[in-house]
């Protein structure tokens, strides 16, 4: 049986904490290579290290850092070595490692890579978001265009095609229409079964239809913006899913390279942190994933660390949007206070997101408005600033029915 989104996220957070604790010990930092030495064996002198083990490290036998441990301690620390590394270590040979190659990838018995907990969590979030978006956009297009499609299946196929046409260029399916369609179909089907993990409603299809038809009679521009609101959430999560998979694969490549006594290439490191032209994403590209998927894109795109608290605030707004409990800290309320003016501008005159900043502002306004109107947010922020100033969290939930 597949795990739930929350189970995957709990597993991921446990992995993150364990790795942070691990790197806070006497082990070198993640950028410095070192030798893992088996203390149950006699230690080789500097002159008797295996030939070539320091090649490409810019270290000498005198300067390379060493960590003395044994097989039992490795198990206690839950350090996972590649099979070749483990064999060498058990034989008493030094193993060249970097902490960032540890405990990040589990290997399948078949030799392939097992998806990380975070990658699996993104998959669940993407599936539920695809299901919600397809159902919502299907009704919104009915309202906007009143098309004559005999069956719901044909309507959904048409909507899925619009999503497929916006496929992210960093995903391997970009050039394959059939693969894109099949992927969306499988995500929709899983989301149809798993939506209760995210939404606190009796029937999401009914709730989604009612919300869409609340726009009946609105001008076409407003409906188009609502369609883009849903489409952008799917696209952002596709970026996250693609980048998470690519990172796992690059970590695997780097791990194998390091285990053979070499260091990663500049290209591999750039791919790992997502800074290549193909994989780089900005704040405007992925903030929607925080709202829709209850995850922090800064954990995937290393260049977006400065937006960490903004992503977490959007996660909380997303929980309220789905009828879940959200717990706001003072820093989240301060961010919302700065966004009140954006929401007011949106109420006065909505805009289409042409530039990255316009896209960011538009999504913040739409996300907040999907939960409560401007005046209610003003009251929430006013009360929140008072209640959270002493470190107390402000917990609220929003009913969708």
List keywords for this structure.
single chain; 401 residues; mainly alpha; three-stranded mixed sheet; two-stranded antiparallel ribbon; 14 helices; 7 strands; 56% helix; 6% strand; elongated
Word description of this protein:
It is elongated, with a radius of gyration of 25 Å. 56% of the residues lie in helices and 6% in strands. The chain has helices at 5-23, 71-77, 83-90, 117-145, 152-165, 177-194, 204-213, 220-259, 266-272, 283-293, 308-321, 330-348, 356-369, 374-387, and strands at residues 34-38, 65-69, 95-97, 106-107, 113-114, 325-328, 394-397. It has 401 residues and is mainly α. Helix 8 crosses helix 9 (266-272) and helix 12 runs antiparallel to helix 14. The protein folds into three domains: 5-114, no CATH class; 117-239, no CATH class; 283-397, no CATH class. The strands form three sheets. Strands 2-1-3 form a three-stranded mixed β-sheet. It has a two-stranded antiparallel ribbon with strand order 4-5. The protein has a two-stranded antiparallel ribbon with strand order 6-7.
């Amino acid at each position: 049986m597949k795990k739930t989104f929350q189970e995957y996220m709990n597993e991921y957070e446990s992995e993150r904490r364990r790795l942070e604790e691990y790197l806070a010990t006497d082990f070198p930092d993640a950028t410095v290579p070192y030798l893992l030495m088996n203390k149950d064996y006699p230690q080789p002198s500097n002159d008797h290290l295996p030939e070539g083990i320091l090649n490409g490290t810019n270290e000498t036998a005198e300067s390379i850092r060493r960590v003395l441990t044994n097989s039992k301690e490795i198990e206690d620390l839950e350090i996972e070595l590649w099979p070749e590394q483990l064999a060498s270590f058990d034989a008493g040979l030094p193993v060249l490692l970097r902490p960032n190659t540890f405990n990040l990838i589990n290997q399948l018995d078949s030799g392939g890579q097992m998806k990380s907990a975070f990658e699996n969590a993104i998959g669940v979030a993407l599936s539920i978001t695809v299901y919600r978006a397809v159902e919502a956009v299907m009704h919104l297009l009915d309202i906007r265009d009143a098309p004559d499609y005999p069956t719901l299946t044909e309507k959904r196929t048409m909507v899925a095609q619009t999503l497929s046409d916006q496929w992210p260029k960093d995903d391997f399916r970009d050039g394959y229409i059939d693969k894109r369609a099949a992927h969306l179909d499988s995500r929709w089907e899983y989301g149809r079964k798993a939506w209760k993990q995210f939404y606190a409603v009796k029937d999401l299809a009914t709730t989604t239809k009612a919300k869409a038809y609340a726009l009946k009679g609105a001008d076409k521009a407003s409906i188009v913006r609502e369609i883009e609101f849903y489409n952008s959430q799917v696209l952002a999560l596709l970026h996250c899913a693609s980048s998470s998979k690519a990172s796992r694969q690059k970590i695997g490549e780097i791990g194998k390279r390091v285990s053979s006594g070499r260091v990663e290439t500049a290209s591999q490191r750039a791919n790992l942190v997502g800074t290549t032209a193909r994989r780089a994403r900005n704040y405007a590209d992925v903030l929607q994933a925080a709202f829709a998927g209850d995850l922090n894109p800064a954990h995937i795109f290393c260049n977006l660390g400065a937006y960490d608290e903004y992503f977490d605030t959007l996660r909380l707004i997303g929980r309220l949007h789905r009828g879940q409990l959200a717990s706001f800290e003072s820093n989240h309320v301060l961010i919302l206070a700065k966004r009140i003016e954006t929401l007011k501008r949106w109420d006065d005159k909505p805009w289409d997101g042409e530039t990255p900043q316009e896209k960011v502002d538009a999504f913040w306004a739409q996300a907040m408005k999907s939960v409560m109107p401007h005046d209610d947010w003003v009251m929430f922020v006013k009360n929140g600033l008072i209640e959270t100033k002493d470190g107390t969290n402000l917990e609220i939930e929003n009913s969708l029915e």
